[in-house]
Specification:
The complex is a heterotrimer of chains A (about 190), B (about 325) and C (about 130). Chain A is α/β, with parallel strands linked by helices and about 190 residues long. Chain A has 6 helices and 9 strands; from the N terminus they run E-H-E-E-E-E-H-E-H-H-E-H-E-H-E. Classes of the chains: A alpha/beta (about 190), B alpha+beta (about 325), C alpha+beta (about 130). Chains A and B meet through helix 5, strand 8, helix 6 and strand 9 of A and helix 8, helix 9, strand 13 and helix 12 of B. Chain C: Pfam families: Robl_LC7 (PF03259).
Amino acid sequence: MSREYKLLFAGPMGAGKTTAIAAISDSAPISTEARNTDIAQHSKAQTTVGFDYGEVALEGGDRLRLYGMPGQSRFDFIWKVASAGALGVVMLADNSRPDPLADLSACIDAFTELAAAHAMVVGVGRGGEGRLGIDDYGEWLAARGHVAPVFSVDVRRRDDVLLLIDALLNQIETRELLAGTTESRA
Amino acid sequence: MYLSTTAAQAPHQLRRISCIGFDWRAEVSLRETLALLNGRTTDQWQYTDEPVADVLIYDSSNALAQAVVRRTTADQARACICFPSNNQDQGELALRYPFGASRLIRCLNHASQSLAGHGGSAADRESLSQRLDNAMALPRIEAIALRVGRHQGLLYPASRRIAWPVALDIDEIAGMLGGDVELTALGSADRALHDAITAQAVVEGPAEALLWAIGMTRSGGQLLGRIQTRQAYRLRRWPDFGVMGRRSADLRCTALLMQRALSVGELTQLSGLPSAVITAFLNAASLCGLLVADTASRAPERILAGSNSRFGGVLQRIRTAFALHDAA
Amino acid sequence: MTLDTPLIGAPGLHESALTELLELLPQAHSVVLAQTDGFEVASAMRRAVPAARLAALASSMLALGAAALRELGMGGHGNVLIEGTDGKLLLLEVPLASQPLVLAVVAGEDAITGSLLWAARQCVQRIINHQ
């Protein structure tokens, strides 16, 4: 019987979740975009209201499912449903926003449990207009008790998205590896 | 990969060979194959971790490797062997993995020919990583002047930022890695020199990508003197691999050291990576100021065999689906 | 929700259409009109429901339903009916060219599905006619 594994892509509106999934999905992703009326929040024309869905075939007939979460907190019911049983979460930030950390705040809190149980990685949209450095994100995360990797990425590039996934997998693997060791401190 | 040659002298001389942009497995395979060739090639070949070698084998799909080769070829300094060549590439200096001995012999002999008539072999000396670490540890140092070819800039050890005449993109970093780097420590008495360089070095930014690359490629297989083999270390934070590129070995070591302080031996054992890879990783992390000695006294890790994964090998299959091993 | 959205017509007219639906169908107890991106536009209710929450849920579910239809090659427009043990939830698309909307009707378990659908469609038609 084939099994399903899922990875979540989360983060505020306009951070590139739909783009990231399209960059790595085997086939064109299924999207649930609606016309964006909240121009004050983000100027893009379309926004995800259900979830984006892509998938990657694995050896042995299993599938890796990629779910892109809607960014606005009014859709947090989907975040909760999707978190159950996920391998981890790729959190994307939009560094061109006036206050990128405030935007990230609601999302990060909603996925705290998943991040703690499995893994989280943060991708910060690359670009000259960025207001904050990678260190600012790292310190902000640390203050909230997260030790997630923070990478500057361009999610239009497949290799950048793979970097995020590779880091996520390495966190899960090494956590399991270390759980199999004993550590005795004097 | 293509072979890049520097300078040759008399026949049967000892030549140094190195590789860049390799999966570590390919590197191990290359070293093993080289060891089998003893006496069967025109020159005698010795493997080195320094890219300042007579011959450089590079992964033609790796951006940093391409940049190094562009640079070294421009300098006419050495010969380059390309790997993995695409199937069309049947050139004299193209290799395929796994390395066949006869093909490698032909490549090396061809490289010897193209090297003949050039200058001397790369000199043995302290690695660039060690020299840089020495300089950064000097007391009351304000900046380190770096000179590579025509470019000169200032590295600020405290903030780990660098001022350079042009933007430090991957090509520029590759140029620094492939060439001789001259270091001069500047204190408060060197104000005039400091100002003179500052006038030219107008682009300022973080030096992390450069320092990481120096640690990875210019460590000469030697751990920095400051790194104690019995000491446990952890990492202060994740480096920004978005800037310096994805290598699975780096991600694995970082993930381990972000979760627990480990000694060099423990890290080698837990990661399952060759010690040369661990050495380069630790040097890179140390140069970037990310390696922190764990002060708590501790008993060594005991690694238990046969711990079962809850994910039943799926992580491995996800890697396969994305070909994530390629950038190891 | 966002202010100054002339696209969706006068709220008063929408509310009268919603109230009329409740009058037409005694088993329906709440009705919410939302934009397809999840913002509440108008509501009418006999029994309190979290209208803003329902607006976001309704837009998501209708979007997922439409995605399923597209995947099956069955167009991209449809309605969603959820029959619970204690009641029914019906989601209808309001295909306004200027700003598509979603109508969410909450009814008791005694509501007859056919009547619910018919009354809700009347309401959708009234909203379209108001434009």
